[in-house]
Each structure stands twice: as structure tokens, then as C-alpha cells.
Amino acid sequence: MNILAVSNHYPPSHRGGYGILCYRICEELTLRGHGVTVLTSLAENGSKPDSADMRVCSNVIRDLVLLPPRSMVRLIAGTIRNDLVVKRALRTTKPDIVYIFGIDGVGFQVYHRATESGVPSLVAVGDTWLAQAWRDLPKFDPWIAVATGAGATGLVRLIKRCIGICGSALGLFAGRRPAREHRVHVISRFLADDLHDAMRTKERMPLLHTPVPLPPPYISLAGEPSGRIGARTDVLRALFVSRMERGKGPDTAILAVKEAVDAGADVVLTIAGIPLEAIEHELRALAASIGIAERVKWVGELGPAELFRLYREHDVFVFPTRIIEGFGIVCAEAMACGLPVLATTTGGQTDLVINGYTGFLFAPSDFAALGGLLARLAKDRSLLDALSANAQQMVRAHHAAKVVDRVETLLEECRNNHSMNA
What we know:
Strand content: 5-15%
Shape: globular
Largest sheet: 6 strands, parallel
CATH topology of the largest domain: Rossmann fold
Mean pLDDT: 92
CATH class of the largest domain: Alpha Beta
Structural class: alpha/beta
Low-confidence stretches: 45-54
Distance between the termini: 19 Å
């Protein structure tokens, strides 16, 4: 099958979930003999990554641009450019199907052009972007906000509406809601419920688990999770892996360690992920100010093999995000390595984190609750071991081969249904 995948980000230049999801699925599809072309944005620093950084790889076209919402001229120019890029990709690759991933940042026009091209399409919903588009497209997309004059009054609104009319004449979409429903699959029940509510549809949306990578072998070819390495010690080793931003809750994790220590537990925390200098400085100062600087280890951004080993050397994974996550790939990776997960209650991570079975849930920013859970696991190692075993059992469904078997079926169904309806 000839597949054109569209994603706002793609490794090695990516910003987490969607880019990784697209990469893992497209990599496996390529290994299975499908012709996969990925249309994505330029690296954020403007340079094109060396193809040697990619393991397989699909043919990657990095011609989309990220749109600057605060500059109307550049927004319009970028929207027109991205529309032309999609049209050119459709023309040159001649795909049997278009497979859409994240489009936040490159513009809703990219999604509209790809799905309304006459080529069958499938949409992977990994966060709330499509639900946001159905609820309030002008609020979600900067170009649509200009084209519809949303939020403007008087002369400004008239000017924006005129721009929208001109854009429509050039083939740009200027509606207040998506043109129609397209076949989607979701990566969590939370996202399915959210999209059902936004679209007011009764259609059942397939749930596809997020694939856990191979290699490194989080889950073996035979479907066995890797588990931990080394013996446990008297110290509970907690791990945080994420982009270093406040929305991901690293401050909650640090404050929780203080709570656990005050409760008499011996707990240390490792923080790994894409560093942002300003917030890392603030977090280091926070740890020092509450007297636990020596209990927090900073390892920065790691390569795949280093990160895999890091997971396996720890006891518990903390996911204190304040963001409404579509799923939380890191939770699945941690569970494959035998780590129970302590996570917040908002988002798709609740598909994996079953309270008292594979981990525990707590409210966002509730560092006292997280600290209490860390203290409990530090003192009750039989509970820790039971949660670890359950976590590994739960994550078996995320074996990449099983997930992409289902992807292939959905892609084939979309292509066949399109042919029957043509």
C-alpha cells in the first residue's frame, strides 16, 4: 500500500507524543513493505536533520512550516504555502491512502486539504485537537479565526472577512466547522469520549493502543515486557521523564519527594527529558530551598538505549502532568520496564493506570497525595512488586506488532470502503 502520512512533527525533530506515534507506526509499516512517505515540518531550528538519525526510514518530506499566529501576513503566507505543499505531495506520491496524525501548528488547512483530496483517509487522534476543531474551529485555528472574523468587530471584522473571501478564492477552507467527518482511530478511551461529545456522533471509534518501541526491546518480539534490572535497594528510586515544562508537573514531583521524606521514607528522584534552561534553574532552586537537592538527580535528554536502561534501573514512575494528555507514551514505556505509575487523573493515562492495580492516581498539583503514595511504596515492597507485575501484564497489548496489525486492517478498510462508495 502506498501511504502518505501527515504529521506536524517527526523525529528526530519532535515535541513528544504525536511525532513519536507517527514514527513508530510508519517505521513498522515500512518494515512490512508498505511505501510510506511522511510529510512533516522543518526542524525547529530550521535545519534538516541528518537521515542517519532515523532508523528505517520512510521517505520524509520536511516542507511544512509552523505558523506564527501573531503575524497575520506570515500566517496567511504560511497557510498558503502549506496548502501547496500538501497538494504537491499528493500529486507526486500518488497515495492509496492519507494517514493524518497531529496538525497543531501547521494549520487546519493541512488536514482539510489532505482529507478532502478525494484520496481515502484515516486520522490518528492522539490528543484533543480534532475535538477542539469540532467545538470551536476559529478558536482552535489561527487562519480560520482570521477568515471568519471571529472575535473581531467593526472594520477589523470586515477586513478579516474580506481576507477570508480571498482565501476561499484561492482554495483555502474558511468554514466554522470541519467540512465532514472522516474515519478516525483514537489512542485512549478518554479521547474517544471527548471526540464523541464534540462531534455528537454515535459512530464507534476504534481504540488502537500506542505502540511501545522495538528496539530497544521494551517488549520483545515474543510479546514479553522487558522488566527491571538489578535488585531493589532500601531507597525507593522514582523516575520522571518528560519535556521540562511546568505543565508536565516536575515541581509537583520534587515537592512530593519532600513530603515522602518528611513521612520517614527514603526516596530519590531522577529527572530526565528535554531540558529548558529557565525552568530547570527554577526547579533546582526549589529542590535546594526545601532541603532535598541531594535527592534529585538531573540527567537531561537521553538517547533511546540510555533511556531504556534508566527506566529499568528505577522502582516507580511519576507522571504528575497538569496537561490533559491524550495518552502518555512514557507511562507505557515505564510499565514495560516493570515500573508502576503514579499519575494524575486527567487524560488518557487512566487507561493504563488502574488505581491499586498498576499504580495509583492523584489530582493534578496534589504533591501531598503523591508524596503519600511514594512513602507508601517505599515502606510496602510487596505492594510495589505486585503493582510491577500487573503493570507488565497490562502493557502487553501495546506490542508494536499487534498495534500495527490493526493499523493495516483499518487502512485497508478505509481504502476498500472508499472504492465501494466512489
